[in-house]
Specification:
By secondary structure, the chain is α+β, with helices and mostly antiparallel strands. The chain has helices at 4-16, 42-48, 57-65, 77-91; strands at 22-27, 33-39, 68-73. The protein has a 3-stranded antiparallel β-sheet.
Length: 96
């Protein structure tokens, strides 16, 4: 993942994503939710998608199609897990 889009997404994460538990979503160019994930630390988890050498091929495919990142902070890790499951069941993102 290279170029201005990746750089812009990464800067947004660095500037705004909290170091707290929560769920995150990745949206494509049509603003469709393509992936939902959970994290103990949203900022750290989202930044991991931009490290090409340490991510799996599926993560690379997802982030290449991502145009916007959204997240929701939760009280703890368990709340994040429950919210992730709810969102996946309700919205059925393509890559989950």
């Amino acid at each position: 993942l290279r170029g201005k889009r990746a750089s812009r997404l990464k800067k947004g994460v660095r500037a705004h994503a909290p170091k707290a538990p929560g769920v995150y979503g990745m949206l494509d160019s049509r603003d469709r939710l393509i992936y939902v994930g959970k994290a103990k630390n949203l900022r750290s988890r989202l930044l991991s998608y931009f490290r090409e050498d340490s991510r799996n091929p599926k993560a690379g495919k997802i982030i290449r199609q991502t145009r916007r990142l959204v997240w929701e902070q939760t009280g703890d890790e368990f709340a994040a897990l429950l919210r992730e499951l709810e969102l996946i069941q309700r919205l059925r993102p393509r890559f989950n």
